[in-house]
Amino acid sequence: MTQKVAITAQNVVKAFGQGAAAVRALDDVSVDIATGEFFTLLGPSGCGKTTLLRLIAGFEMPTAGKILIDGADVTEMPPNRRPVNTVFQSYALFPHLTVAENIGFGLKMQGRPKAEVAATTTEMLALVKLDAMADRKISQLSGGQQQRVALARALAPRPKVLLLDEPLSALDLKLRKKMQVELKRLQTETGITFVFVTHDQEEALTMSDRIAVMSAGKIQQIGAPREIYTRPVNRFVASFVGETNFLPVTATPQGARLSTGDVIAAEGEGSVLIVRPEQLRLGPAGVGAGLAAKVTGVVYFGTDIHVNLSLADGTALTARVPSPVDGGADFATGQDVAVTFQPGAARLIRE
Amino acid sequence: MSPAEQSQRSRSTRNGWLLSAPALTLLFLAASGPLLIVLVYSFLTPGQYGNVVWDFSLDGWIGILFTRDIFDGTMNLADAHLTIFWRSVKLSLMTTALTFALGFPTAWFIATRPPAQRAMWLFLITIPFWTNLLIRTFAINEVIRNEGLMNTVLTGLGLISEPIRLINTDTAVFIGMAYVYLPLMVLPLFAAIDRFDMKLLEAGYDLYASRMQVLRHVIVPIVKPGIVAGSILVFVPSLGAYVTPRVLGGGKNMMIGNFIELQFGQGRNWPLGAALSMALLLIVMAALLVYVRASTKGSNPHG
Q1: Nearest-CA residue of chain B relative to A58?
Q2: What's the burial of B229, exposed, middle or buried (CB within 10 Å: 0-12/13-18/19+)?
Q3: Which residues of chain B have pLDDT under 50?
Q4: Torsion-angle region of residue A288: left (phi > 0), alpha (psi -120 to 50) or beta?
Q5: pLDDT tens-digit map of B223-249
Q6: Distance from CA of A197 to the nearest CA of B (A)
Q7: Which CATH number belongs to the domain containing residue A153 in this structure?
Q8: Rounded to whole angstroms, how far apart are CA atoms A35 and A6?
């Protein structure tokens, strides 16, 4: 990669507590985040994603390892001297200041001239579409507006990196979708490197250039959204990002042998076959190739239906098929069907 | 709002007033009654045995600032009175400043303890209130007097050869008042800091503020209501303090409170005492107005 690196974490360890009771929130994490990238740290709560973000911001010191910003070692540098800004989960807006004063706070603390503070504040207000709210108090704003003030406040000093700690989690679904688009637009317009922390896999997939999936203080996989979704490296990534069927298999020269005895062509190596529910095709039983299965349940989701299946030996499997146009059920519990895999859909992973 | 809702609301409002009427009546009578008596007395003539004669006179009010020369009857500025006023205001301001300087870190410390520990720390802060003010003041006296604990220990250790003379000085009164009123500063400060969102500290540091800048631009403006409340709670009773200057300041280092008491006792000049009381009230009100005005102006930079 010839791209410039904005942030480097080198073998970062962060332990909380002392001695035997110490908990390793981060366990030897190394990652390079490229300049201008929308990089997402994705994982369940307690996986260490927020800790990594706080280490980059400077709110925590690593137990071991280094943090570099633009190639400079900032491991020991206090947060007020790092060229990064944070959008906090709870926004942490200053309640005693107006919207404009909140946005200008960082510039004012840097000692920039008044005219520059005012100009940048106006520019930021326009960027987040809050021009009319400049003199409002924070308590007079809605959650979505507060969110935009928090963004503008963090962007105003033109940081090299913007850190976002689950900024959308307090918003309702509609607003969240809107803000996802907004965030992506802001990132493209400003060209600032975004490091985004979330536990929402859909959010991560729709917005990111690259995603680091984290679990138990370690990075499990780093890659583009498509890569993460289509080629998960282990069971955790496969199950956390999207839904997956896991089938135990044994490798044979012809392909992966299922517990039913059927053999399926699959990429990769390992003892577990994974296949996404939407990559399964259901056909009438006894016609052509396919695994014999019985429908055990049908769940209607609107855009599609989830069909729970049971293979000949009882192995459970879920398929996701488009909703029939007339709204009626295409499948009935107890029905026999033949299950086929889309070409290339089946992959093997190690347990 | 439907008529039914309206009548229900007005009924509940009326019930609220009825329920609080006894307390409000008591408060009104107890506050305005004595004040009215004092106001009337300040315009009367002193009686021979310390009561009042019902003759209108402005001598009480004039006596606040002036004394009549006993030989030629000319009016002169009463330096002694001014000294007392100045000492009262000065010591009260100093007490407020010292209790704030000591109380703010204390309140911050308590507010940042785990919730389970906070109750204990607050409990410890309030323990002095369990003992009578007079007894606490005498205890201070016992510590700082010439042959008291402090001087005995320091002499015993050979650190000083002469006892430090603190008792019957302004400094003694200052120390005593700061001790007595410290909890009144800590409690409202704690209440304000307890509500302070510590995330704002991180937001401040994140936006390039140094520790001093965070204190000045984030913490102080947000906990200002607590600072104002604590300062008022310390300053007002300090200005009218009676017991502490009496016990620790001796007869010479009087404050307004002692001076007023003197007029009603040995001085046998009730109208002057009453006028002084009213003057004290006016000083307190003026100080509060200035203070509240100044503190609300600061919080609105556009004003």
Answers
A1: B206
A2: middle
A3: 299-303
A4: left
A5: 998 999 999 999 999 998 999 999 998
A6: 17
A7: 3.40.50.300
A8: 5
**Is residue A242, in this structure, part of any structural domain at all?**
no
CATH number for the domain harbouring residue A317: 2.40.50.140
Same domain, A207 and A274: no
**Segments forming the whole domain that contains residue B111:** 79-298
Structural domain boundaries, residue A343? 250-349
Tally of domains within chain B: 1
**Cα B69 to Cα B56, B77, B266, distances in angstroms:** 22, 10, 20
Q: Does B212 touch chain A (CB under 8 A)?
A: no
B89 has a chain A CB within 8 A of its CB: no
Q: What is the pLDDT of residue A252?
A: 82
Backbone angles phi, psi at A316, to 5 degrees: -85, 150
Find the CB nearest A105 among B199, B207, B299.
B207
Could you give phi then psi for residue B149, rounded to 5 degrees?
-55, -50
Q: Which secondary-structure segment (H or E) carries A11? A: strand A5-16
Does A175 reside within a domain? yes
Distance of CA A144 to the CA centre of its chain: 21
For residue B207, list chain A residues with Cβ-Cβ distance below 8 A: 80, 85, 105-106, 109, 153-154, 157
Same domain for A74 and A188, yes or no, is yes
A61 touches chain B (CB under 8 A): no
**Assembly ipTM:** 0.84
| pLDDT score recorded for residue A329 | 55
Please name the residue ranges forming H helices in B42-78: 59-65
Q: What is the CA radius of gyration of chain A?
A: 24
Yes or no: say if A36 and A191 are a contact pair by the CB < 8 Å rule: yes
Residues of B in contact with A98 (CB under 8 A): 302
**Interchain contact, B207 vs A85, CB within 8 Å:** yes
How many other CB atoms are found less than 10 A from the CB of residue A66? Answer: 15
pLDDT digits (tens, 9 = 90+) for A193-244: 999 999 999 999 999 999 999 999 999 999 999 999 999 999 999 999 989 9
Host H or E run for residue A29 = strand A23-34
CA neighbor of A95 nearest in space, from A110, A85, A105, A109: A105
Enumerate residues 241 to 270 of chain A having a beta carbon within 8 A of any beta carbon in chain B.
none
| Chain A interface test: which of B195, B208, B224 (most A C-beta within 10 Å) | B208
Give the tokens for residue A155. 């962007």
Residues A287 and A343 in one domain: yes
Chain A contacts of B220, Cβ < 8 Å? none
Res B301: pLDDT = 42
Q: Where are the alpha helices (DSSP H) in A156-233?
A: 173-190, 201-207, 225-230
